[in-house]
Design goal:
single chain, 82 residues, alpha+beta, four-stranded antiparallel beta sheet
């Protein structure tokens, strides 16, 4: 009986941990998207950098459009093409 309870508890904890990781990844991606949206109107050159309280946004123009790389203070790097 204790073994079944232990396995059920372990499964529930793993599900919660996976859910929390997914939510954190989504939050970081949304922060990066917000940084891109706030800086789109200010892009004037072929490359540049914007600094935000949540991290740094680096952009570069290429043949297909703009490539943004958000380096968040959490350490995560998110790439977005526009």
């Amino acid at each position: 009986m204790a073994l079944m309870f232990s396995m059920l508890l372990q499964f529930a904890l793993q599900c919660q941990l996976a859910s929390k990781k997914q939510l954190l990844e989504r939050k970081n991606h949304l922060i990066a998207e917000m940084m891109v949206n706030l800086s789109l109107d200010q892009v004037r050159e072929n490359h540049g950098t914007f600094n935000f309280s949540t991290g740094t946004l680096v952009y570069q123009k290429d043949a297909t459009g703009l490539v943004f790389e958000a380096r968040l203070k959490t350490g995560e790097v998110v790439r977005i093409n526009k």
